[in-house]
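[Automated response] Your request has been received and processed.

Submitted sequence:
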Amino acid sequence: MNPEEQSQIYQTLYPRRQDIAAAWNALMTTLSPTLDEAADLHPKLLHATEHLLKLLVAEPFSAEPAQSIGVMLDVLDNVQPDALLQIYELLARELATGLTEEQVVLLYPRITSLIGAVGLGCSIGKAERAKTFAMNAMSVMGHDLKTPINAITGFSKVILKGIDGPITEFQQQDLTSIHDAGQKLLTMIDELFRTAKTDAGKTHLYGDEFDVAALLGDVLHVSQPVLARNGHALNVRCQGELGVMKLDASRTRWVLLGLLYYVARRTTNSTVSLTVIHETVQDKDGLLFTISVAKPEQAPEGADFWEDKAAEDADIALITSKRFCEELGGSFTPEQRKDDIARFVVRLPAQ
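Generated structure:
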């Protein structure tokens, strides 16, 4: 587009910016009557219109900056997808109104690109605002969950210390169990919320097929801070080329995260290991994952780390990991070895 064409088109469309914004505003309030009370709607749409007109005639042309318009228009969050299509069609008509046939032909690819970028920006903005809302809701929920648990563990500790008077040996055992269970719940809540906060800072782009090494990198990035809180070292070993998997990436990811969190809670200041091997069994490709935690070097003689196995088997991380593994068509095998407190072998098909 030469400078003369730019000037002619801009001089035709710029005086119509108020009309374009007004038509946009009218359709918005028709599609979503609650927007009629939004005092800042028209100024937002006018600013968006002016920005679109400048991008439309700019050289070199780039539609990408129009995404910021969609991100800014949070008022579109309440508009249904079919209504959004009506808005985009209106914008296309309004941006072409008053132009000659030759100018419309010249601008048509630019108009469609700009509107597509606005739509993409709307999706990005909506996702970001939903993520923020979800994190705020989770923070409130986490506080509401932890407050009564803190009260339970706090009062049980007070009674255990004998501040309220002497207690029997049986009462001491029961109160110790209550206190330990409360502490475990607090730890599990912290693990889940730490994972959610880490996930909120990035967007996962796993499709139907994903690279196993990339997924492992993500798992290690998320789990390392949680394991470090218990003083654990993380040992990762991969054998051979891992390749790709065609499974549900989210569930595959949680199988590994859940088991890492579970074994890490069995002790402190030890070594948590994750070993991954690509294997072929009867011409079928699969991945073999082994997750374990070693006994601490300073473990007391004769210590039984499985004495509360019934309670441990009810662990939510263990239950969900086992269920997801089965849903993915894999196998889940707990093992007990001399040098390990807990050890799990997971086999998942590559497809």
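Summary generated for your ticket: The two ends are 50 Å apart (CA to CA). The chain has a mean pLDDT of 79.
If you did not submit this request, please reply to this message.
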